[in-house]
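User: Let's play a game. I give you a shape written as C-alpha cells, and you guess the letters that built it. Ready? Here's round one.
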C-alpha cells in the first residue's frame, strides 16, 4: 500500500541547467550582501533564504550539512538543496547546490529529507517532492511524495535522482505528507514521515523495506492527541541510553497548530520531543509530555544523525516574523550550532554544543569573579562581535530579582538581555530593548532541583546576529535572533534590585568557520 513498484522518474527540466541558474541566483544576492548580522560561526547560505537542515551525515571523512534553499530571493520560495561540508566540524567549505526541482513529482520544490548509508556504503537521500495542486500556490492544496537520490561521488556534491518511491494516498491526507527519515534496525530498513490526515490531525507514519526502494506501510507511529495540531513536520526518531543503560526512544517533531500556554508553544510552530519506548511494528509509547527542544524565539525543524557514537542535531533558526531585518541584506536564515544529544542523570534530554566548537576559540579571558551590586552594570567586553561566554551564578548568594548579561549593547542604548529571573524561576532572552526586529522575550522554566542548586550555569554563544543560551549542561536552550545597531557591541553584567553573585565568568573570542 502506498508504495511504487519501482521509482517513478519523470524529468521535465534539465537538472544541471537548473542548478547553474540557482548558483547564479545565489551569487547575485551574495554580491549585495551586508554582513552586519551575517553569522561568523553558524552555517548560512552565501545568499538567499534557507530553512530546514537536510541530509545530515558523516561520509568518507567529511561532515555534510544540506539545507532548504531558495536561491532567488530572501523570502521562502521554490525549494532547492544547499550544501556545505567539513573535515572537522570547525572549518567549513561551501559546496555546489545539490538539488533543484527538475522532475514532475517535485516540480515546485525539493523539500526536506534525510541521508543514510546503505549496506554497500552508498550514500542515499530520501526527500519530499512537492507540487501545488493548481500549479501555482496553496489555494487548492499540495501533492507531496517521497523521493530517492544517491551520491554519485565521494564528496557527495553531485546527486543522482532516482525518482518517487512512495506516492501519497490523497484521499487519506490533507496535503501535508513529507520529511522522510530512514534508518536500519535488526536487518530491516525503516522510514517515517509526517502527515496531516484528511480530518486535519497530525500523525507520523511508519514503513519498512528490505531493498530501500519498495516500502510497505506498517502503522501510525504516533498520533498527536492535541486537536489543534494538524501536522507533525520534520519527524525524527532515535534511541538513547539512560543512566542505567536502558534504551529509550526519543521522538522529535515540529508541531504545526499548537497553541501557546504559559511558557509553552510561544512561537508560530514549535519543535519538541517526548521520551518513551518502542518496538518495531508498534506505536511509540510516550513516557513524558511534549517538551520543547529549545525555548527560544527562533528555533524549528531540527534533524539529527548518528556518527562516531554520537547523536548530533542541527536546528534551523527560523525568523517566524514576516519581515526579518536580515532579509534586506541579501540573505535570511542560519543553522544553530551542532548539538550533541544525550539523556542526563535526570533522565531528560540534554543538548550541548559538540566539543569541536571549542576549537573555534582564539582568545580566552578569565574575569575576576566579583559580586555585581544592586542596580549596577559592569562592562565585560567593549566590542564582542563573536564570543562564547561561560557564566556561573551563585544562587545562594544572589539576591537580585533579575540579573545576567546584556549582549549586543550598542551606543544607541539597545541590547538583548540574557537574565536569570528569580521571581519567575526562569532564564530569559529578553529583546524588549532591541532597536529592530521582533521584540518580546522567551523563557526557560527551571525545575525545583535547579532552583535549589548552588549554581546556575549559563553558556552563551553570541554571533553577529544571534544568541544561543545553554542552561545547566543543555537541559534547556534558548536560541534567538538579535540585530545590534551600529557601533561597538558591548557585553555587560547587570543586576536589578539586589546583588548578582558570580562564581565564574570566562569569555572566549570565536573565529570564523570560513563561510563568510
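Assistant: Ready! My guess for every position:
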Amino acid at each position: 500500500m502506498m508504495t511504487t513498484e519501482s521509482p517513478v522518474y519523470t524529468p521535465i527540466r534539465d537538472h544541471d541547467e537548473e542548478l547553474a541558474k540557482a548558483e547564479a541566483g545565489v551569487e547575485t544576492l551574495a554580491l549585495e550582501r551586508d554582513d552586519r548580522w551575517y553569522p561568523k560561526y553558524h552555517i548560512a547560505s552565501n545568499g538567499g533564504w534557507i530553512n530546514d537542515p537536510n541530509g545530515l551525515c558523516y561520509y568518507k571523512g567529511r561532515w555534510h550539512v544540506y539545507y532548504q534553499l531558495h536561491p532567488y530571493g530572501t523570502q521562502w520560495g521554490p525549494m532547492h538543496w544547499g550544501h556545505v561540508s567539513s573535515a572537522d566540524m570547525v572549518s567549513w567549505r561551501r559546496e555546489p547546490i545539490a538539488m533543484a526541482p527538475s522532475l514532475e513529482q517535485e516540480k515546485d520544490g525539493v523539500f526536506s529529507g534525510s541521508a543514510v548509508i546503505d549496506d554497500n556504503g552508498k550514500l542515499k537521500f530520501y526527500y519530499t517532492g512537492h507540487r501545488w495542486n493548481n500549479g501555482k500556490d496553496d489555494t487548492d492544496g499540495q501533492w507531496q511524495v517521497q523521493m530517492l537520490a544517491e551520491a554519485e561521488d565521494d564528496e557527495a556534491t553531485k546527486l543522482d535522482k532516482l525518482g518517487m518511491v512512495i506516492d501519497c494516498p490523497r484521499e487519506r491526507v490533507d496535503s501535508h505528507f513529507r520529511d522522510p527519515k530512514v534508518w536500519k534496525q535488526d536487518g530491516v530498513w525503516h522510514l517515517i514521515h509526517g502527515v496531516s490526515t484528511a480530518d486535519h490531525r497530525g500523525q507520523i507514519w511508519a514503513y519498512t523495506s528490505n531493498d530501500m526502494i519498495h516500502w510497505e506501510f506498517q502503522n501510525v507511529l504516533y498520533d498527536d492527541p492535541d486537536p489543534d495540531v494538524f501536522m507533525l513536520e520534520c519527524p525524527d526518531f532515535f534511541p538513547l541510553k539512560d543512566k542505567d543503560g536502558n534504551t529509550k526512544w526519543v521522538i522529535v517533531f515540529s508541531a504545526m497548530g499548537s497553541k501557546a500556554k504559559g511558557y509553552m508553544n510561544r512561537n508560530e510552530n514549535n519543535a519538541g520531543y517526548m521520551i518513551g519506548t518502542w518496538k518495531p511494528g508498534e506505536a511509540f509509547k510516550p513516557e513524558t509530555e511534549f517538551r520543547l527542544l529549545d525555548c527560544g524565539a527562533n528555533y524549528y525543524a531540527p534533524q539529527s544523525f548518528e556518527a562516531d557514537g554520537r547523536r548530533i542535531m542541527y536546528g534551523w533558526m527560523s525568523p517566524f516574523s514576516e519581515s526579518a531585518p536580515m532579509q534586506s541584506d541579501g540573505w535570511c536564515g542560519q543553522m544553530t550550532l551542532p548539538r550533541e544529544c544525550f539523556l542526563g542523570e535526570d533522565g531528560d534530554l540534554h543538548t550541548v554544543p559538540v566539543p569541536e566548537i571549542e576549537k573555534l576559540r582564539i582568545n580566552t579571558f578569565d574575569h575576576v569573579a566579583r559580586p555585581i551590586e544592586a542596580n549596577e552594570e559592569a562592562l565585560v567586553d567593549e566590542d564582542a562581535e563573536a564570543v562564547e561566554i561561560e557564566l556561573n551564578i551563585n544562587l545562594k548568594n544572589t539576591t537580585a530579582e533579575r540579573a545576567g548579561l546584556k549582549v549586543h549593547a550598542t551606543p544607541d542604548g539597545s541590547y538583548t538581555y540574557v537574565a536569570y529571573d528569580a521571581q519567575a524561576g526562569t532564564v530569559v532572552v529578553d529583546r524588549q530593548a532591541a532597536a529592530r526586529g521582533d521584540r518580546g522575550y522567551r523563557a526557560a522554566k527551571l525545575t525545583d532541583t535547579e532552583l535549589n542548586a548552588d549554581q546556575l550555569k549559563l553558556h552563551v554563544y553570541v554571533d553577529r546576529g544571534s544568541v544561543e543560551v545553554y542552561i545547566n549542561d543543555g537541559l534547556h536552550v534558548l536560541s534567538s535572533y538579535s540585530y545590534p545597531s551600529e557601533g561597538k557591541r558591548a557585553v555587560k553584567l547587570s543586576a536589578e534590585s539586589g546583588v548578582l553573585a558570580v562564581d565564574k565568568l570566562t569569555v572566549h573570542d570565536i573565529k570564523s568557520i570560513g563561510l563568510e
